[in-house]
Amino acid sequence: MASLSVPAAATDPRRDAMDLHRAFKGFGDVTDLRAATEVICSRTPSQLRVVREAYLAGYAGGVGVAGGGQLERDVAERTSGDHQRLLLAYLRAARYEGPEMVDPCAAARDARKLYRAGERRLGTDERTFIRIFSERSAAHMVAVAAAYQHMYDRSLEEAVKSETSGNFGYGLLTILRCAENPAKYFAKVLHKAMKGLGTNDTTLIRVVTTRTEIDMQYIKAEYHRSYKRSLADAVHSETSGNYRTFLLSLIGRDR
Questions:
Q1: Partner of 148 for a Cys bridge, out of 36, 56, 61, 111, CB 3.0 to 4.6 A?
Q2: Which tens digits make up the pLDDT trace of 137-158?
Q3: What does the domain comment read (predicted)?
Q4: Over the chain, what is the mean pLDDT?
Q5: What angle do CA 179, 136, 10 make, to 5 degrees?
Q6: Residue 87 burial (CB < 10 Å; 0-12/13-18/19+)?
Q7: Same structural domain for residues 54 and 117?
Q8: In-domain check, residue 70
């Protein structure tokens, strides 16, 4: 599976914290919880550590909650079931981020565990999915996906889609897609935000403002490759006035 190697860059933790706070104010609204899931599951461990501190400082007064734990508390209060377990595990996992030599044997073992977790006679073993997706590095997950494809002649994404659903499945897919190619993932998110009648302005603003200084050039290239038009052209046709000018200034001109 092809992937773009984009160095981890510093996101705006205050913006992420604000987006998470806004999402949780919905108290269970599916759209809001998806936004929170996207923010959490598309960030690296080091980025999340800073987001947790920004969330604590901005929305808990920085008093009485150590180590950014306020974000975990709000996740626990606003979510439930396997979705909750995935987000909490992902926030708490000390996953390795630096350069690494991926062990093909370990990747094959994880691929086998995931296959068995989805083929259980008594139903899907969600805990295995949560453990592997939350504890493994992005590079390792790419190797797992490749091993899964080779061993079972089926993509890991198809296994996830067939065995999980709702926000839990969305979280797993976000982790997997961002591990393989984050630019392609966000290009798809932007396309969906502008597809059909009306524009999802909240999603459009969130993605553009948080990815501008990280991988916007890659996102623009993936958008053009996937949808045969430039991202700037799509945004221009779906927005107007100062709002359009603001977004286009962040996206930049196509090269």
A1: 111
A2: 999 999 999 999 999 999 999 9
A3: A pair of annexin repeats may form one binding site for calcium and phospholipid.
A4: 87
A5: 55
A6: buried
A7: no
A8: yes
